[in-house]
Amino acid sequence: MMKNLQSTTTLNNGIEMPWLGLGVFKVEEGQELVDAVKAAIKHGYRSIDTAAIYGNEVGVGQGIREAMEEADIAREDLFITSKVWNSELGYEKTIAAYEESLSKLGLEYLDLYLIHWPVEGKYSDAWRALETLYKEGRVKAIGVSNFQIHHLENLMKDAKIKPMINQVEYHPRLTQKDLKSFCKENNIQLEAWSPLMQGQLLENVELQEIANKYGKSVAQVILRWDLQNGVITIPKSTKAHRIAENADVFDFELTEEDMKHIESLNQNHRVGPDPDNFDF
Ligand code: NDP
User: Fold this and answer.
1) Domain ranges of the chain
2) Hey, how many other C-beta atoms are within 10 angstroms of the C-beta on 66?
3) Full-prediction pTM beyond 0.90?
4) Ligand 1 atom 35: the closest Cα is on which residue?
5) What separation in angstroms does the CA of 188 have from each of 26, 107, 149?
6) Rounded CA gap, 29 and 125, in Å?
7) Which residues does a 6 A CB cutoff place in the pocket of ligand 1?
8) What's the confidence (pLDDT) of residue 1?
9) 160 C-alpha to center of ligand 1: Å?
10) Distance of CA 190 to the CA centre of its chain
11) Angle at 105 between CA 104 and CA 111, to 5 degrees
């Protein structure tokens, strides 16, 4: 159940993953990054989401190590995610990219490794590499990101192991109805990136009205909506007070009516690239 920041969901391979984690996209290497990761873990976050392309794995690793030491937290209690970038998709290249992420992070293993984008003609070989890493016990769970239904269907045709996660853009303006049902039917856990629509939803009047009713912020209402929809969420903030605010979503419950109201804000609107039409 979702009781607190350490509450987890069980992935299709039996691994437990926290419902809420910290995202660090666009946070550059440096003290602000290290401090944000430390603040989150010390506050009770157990899940951190980074990627090779973010160029910040060294600082994320430093923040993790310092927080573990200062707060006496074991590595097994944390859940660390990274992602293989598009230029590294290929069997050998993806294995090497995994090694490089581990070495930058200063970790022995990752909890979750994802294919960052579904580059046509390339993701199947990369998936075989992830399967090898998984079978060798080098990573606890493997998955994909930005995969549409047809990408998942295509991947699963040849896959020996089904993805445990699909991490996609998901927020009240992009509620991903069909993809969400598909993932549910196939026991692939959906995870939301840009859950706050990169901050663009926080002034929304309708969400503000809902938030007022519960005495919560708009950010908290959106994140709670993710959880009640069974979607893992990883809001990004470098501000300690917002890191705490975003985690304070376990003491209230949105009514069915408010859940539907939020769903009705959908416009199939993306703030990030379209997985069916990207050129990187
Ligand atoms: P978010 O939707 O999490 O929004 C982050 C923005 O909202 C930042 O500007 C942050 O500012 C602000 N913010 C956060 N909390 C609050 C709050 N409580 N009140 C007011 N403002 C707030 O965007 P992201 O794009 O960062 O997505 C989250 C994570 O998802 C990423 O960090 C990354 O880990 C992952 N991601 C994955 C992608 C993929 O392709 N797989 C693509 C994009 C993101 P401040 O820091 O100043 O508080």
Assistant:
1) 8-199+231-236
2) 16
3) yes
4) 193
5) 27, 26, 11
6) 31
7) 23-25, 49, 116, 145-146, 167, 193-199, 202, 217, 219, 234-239, 242, 245-246, 272
8) 77
9) 33
10) 9
11) 130
Ligand 1: residue of 236, 270, 274, 278 to mutate (most ligand atoms within 8 A of CB) is: 236
Atom number, ligand 1, closest to the C-alpha of residue 171: 2
DSSP for 75-93 reads GGG-EEEEEE-GGG-SHHH
Report the pLDDT value the prediction gives residue 118, as an integer from 0 to 100.
Answer: 98
What does each C-alpha distance from 139 to 15, 82, 116, 240 come to in angstroms? 11, 11, 16, 30
Residues of the chain with pLDDT under 50: none
> So what's the pLDDT on residue 156?
98
Question: Does 54 participate in catalysis according to the annotation?
Answer: yes
Angle at 43 between CA 238 and CA 3, to 5 degrees: 115
Could you report the per-residue pLDDT of 25-72, keeping only the tens digit for each?
Answer: 999 999 999 999 999 999 999 999 999 999 999 999 999 999 999 999
Q: Which atom of ligand 1 is nearest to the CA of 220?
A: 18
DSSP conformational letter for 197: G
pLDDT of residue 10: 98
First to last CA, the chain: 39
Task: Please determine, looking at this structure, whether the domain spanning 8-199+231-236 carries the CATH number 1.10.10.10.
Answer: no
| 241: number of Cβ within 10 Å | 9
CA distances from 146 to 83, 94, 168, 198, 245 (A): 12, 17, 5, 17, 27
